[in-house]
Amino acid sequence: MLTILEAGKIRTYLVIYVTGFNLQTINVFPYLATRKDFNGKTGCIGFCWGGPLANNLAVNVLQLKAAVAFYGRPPASDQVDKIKAGIQLY
Predict the structure, then answer these.
(1) Please, what is the Cα angle at 86 between 83 and 90, to 5 degrees?
(2) Mutual orientation of helices 4-18 and 50-60 as an angle, nearest 10°?
(3) Are 53 and 89 contained in the same domain?
(4) What global pTM score does this model have?
(5) pLDDT in tens for each of the 90 residues of the chain?
(6) How far apart are CA 86 and CA 25, in angstroms?
(7) Can you tell me the distance from the alpha carbon of 82 to that of 15, in angstroms, rounded to the nearest whole number?
(8) Is 55 in the same domain as 84?
(9) N or C: which end of the chain has fewer CB within 10 A?
(10) DSSP string, 17-75
(11) Structure letter (DSSP) for residue 85
(12) What is the C-alpha R_g of the chain?
């Protein structure tokens, strides 16, 4: 189980991504892989403004297993081939 400090660390990494820093600066997914309680399954859900963020994660994070985007813009058509995760769009 995550401690409050670890959860805050993960949230900080995701906020860095959301605010526009380069995806290469984010270590949340490799960090999760180092945890003994991590089962290898990652996913994201985005509502409204978060919908495009979920789509961006699906395009840019190959470890992502699932992404659900409620509203927002879809990924660019030339980026769709990069998606390895299962995605559901609303």
Answers:
(1) 100
(2) 90
(3) yes
(4) 0.69
(5) 666 667 666 665 565 555 454 454 356 788 788 888 889 888 888 888 788 888 888 888 888 899 999 987 888 899 899 999 999 988
(6) 24
(7) 23
(8) yes
(9) N
(10) HHTT--GGG--HHHHHHT-TT--S--EEEEETTHHHHHHHHHHH-TT--EEEEESSPPP
(11) S
(12) 13
Q: Are 49 and 72 in contact (CB under 8 A)?
A: yes
Q: Which residue has the tokens 């820093």?
A: 21
| Amino acid sitting at position 64 | L
Domains contained in the chain, number: 2
| 60 Cβ neighbours under 8 A, 6+ residues apart | 23, 82
Range of the domain at 90: 41-90
* Residue 85, amino acid: A
How many angstroms separate the CA atoms of 61 and 26, rounded?
A: 10
How many CB atoms neighbour CB 16 within 10 A? 16
Q: CB of 53 within 8 A of CB of 18?
A: yes
Question: What residues have CB less than 8 Å from 1, skipping those under 6 apart?
Answer: 37
**66 and 85 co-located in one domain:** yes
